[in-house]
Amino acid sequence: MEACMNVEREADKVLGKFHGVWNHAERTFDEMIENLASRQEELSKSPCDDQFNLFHNHLLLSSIKRVREITTRLSNEHKDIHSSVSKVGKSIDKNFVSELIDLNQDPTYGNEDRMKLLNTVVFEHFLRQGMLDIAENLSQEANLDVPESAKEPFVEINRILAALKERNLEPALQWALNHRDQLRAQNSSLEFKLHRLRFIELVRLGPEKQYEALFYARNFSQFAGAHEKELQVLMGSFLYIRQGLEVSPYARLLDPINWLDICDVFTQDACALLGLSIESPLTVGVSAGAIALPALQKIKQVMQQRQCHVMWTAKDELPIEVELEPSQRYHSIFACPILRQQASENNPPMRLACGHAISRDSLNKLINGSKIKCPYCPVESSPNDAKQLHL
Ligand SMILES: [Zn+2]
C-alpha cells in the first residue's frame, strides 16, 4: 500500500505540473495570436508601397523575437514535464518488485497453444464486458478463429443487459419466454422478477395505468405457487395506486436496487444456461493471482536466503496453500490435510468411519496393526471401513 502511495504522489506531481503548463500554454498562445493579429492589422493599414519602412521592419523583427522566446519557454516547460513523467517510472521501479517472472518456473505461456488459450480468455472477457469491437480486433490479431456462433450468446446477453440498465424489460422478458422450460428446470425466478418489476412500474405511474396494471397482474397466475408471499405484497401495493406508491408502506418496492438485482439475476441465469461461469475467468484468475502473489514472493525470498535454488518441483502445484475466496474456487479438488498433497487417481481421498477424509497414502501410513486412529477426532476404526470419495 505504501508503495502505491509513493507512486501516486509522483503521479499527482506530474498531473499538477501538467495542468499548470497546459493552462499557461493555452493563455500564452491566445495572447500570442492576439498580438500577432493586431500587428498584422497595423501592417495592413499602412499604405501599400511594396516597401517596408523602418517601423515595419522593427515591428516584424520584434514579433519574431517574441514568438521565438515564447516557443523556447514552452518547449522547456514541456521538457520539464517529461522529466517528471520519467520520475514516475523510476518510482514504480523503486517501489515495486518487477522480477515476478521467475516466480513461475514453468514457461506458462511458452508455447503457441497456451498463448492462444490466454488470448481466448482475454477475448471472452472483452465479449462479456460488451467490448465487442476490441474483442473482434484481438481475435483477428491473434488469429483466434472464433466461429460467429460462439460470439452470439455474449452479444445477446450484452444487448439485454444494456436494455435492463435503461429500465427496458422487453428484451429480457422475451428471452425469458424463449427459454422458459430451461429456466424452470434450474429453478430460476427471472421471469417472475421481470413481471414483478413491470407491474411495480405500472403501479408507480398512477391511476392512469390502473387497468393496465390489473390486466398485467394476470401474468402472475403461473407463479402463484412459488411466489405467494411476494404476490400478496404486490397486490397490496396496488391499493395505493391513487395515493402514490412512494408515500405508501410499499415504497421499498421502488428501491433502485431492484433494477441492479435483476441485472445480476439475468446474468447468473443466462450464464448458467449457456454453461458459462458467472464471473469472467480472467477476472477470477487475476484476482486470485493477486492474492497468491505476495505469499509466493515471500516464500521465494526465504528460499533464496536459505539458498534453496529449486523453488518447487511438483508441476501444476504451488509450494504453499493459498486461501482463496469461496467464489474463486472452481474445481472440486481434495488436498490431503496430512500429507498436504492434492489427491490423484493413485492417491484418492478416503472417508474414515468417523466421517473425516484423508488421502489413501496418509491412511496407509497411519495404519497401526488392524486399526487406524483418525488424526482429527481421534476415533479408532478399521481401515477396511474407509471408503473412497469421488469428487
Ligand atoms: Zn475422525
Automatic annotation (TrEMBL):
Family matches, as PANTHER family: GH10162P, MACROPHAGE ERYTHROBLAST ATTACHER-RELATED
Question: Which molecular-function annotation in GO is an example for this chain?
Answer: zinc ion binding
Question: Could you provide one GO biological process annotation from this protein's UniProt record?
Answer: proteasome-mediated ubiquitin-dependent protein catabolic process
- The residues covered by the RING-Gid-type domain are 336-377
Whose protein is this, by species? Strongylocentrotus purpuratus (Purple sea urchin)
The entry's protein name is: Uncharacterized protein
This protein's record includes keyword Heme: no
Q: Which Pfam families match?
A: CTLH, zf-RING_UBOX
Keywords on record: Cytoplasm, Metal-binding, Zinc, Zinc-finger
Family annotation (SUPFAM superfamilies) = RING/U-box
Annotated CTLH domain ranges read 153-210
One GO term describing the cellular component: nucleus
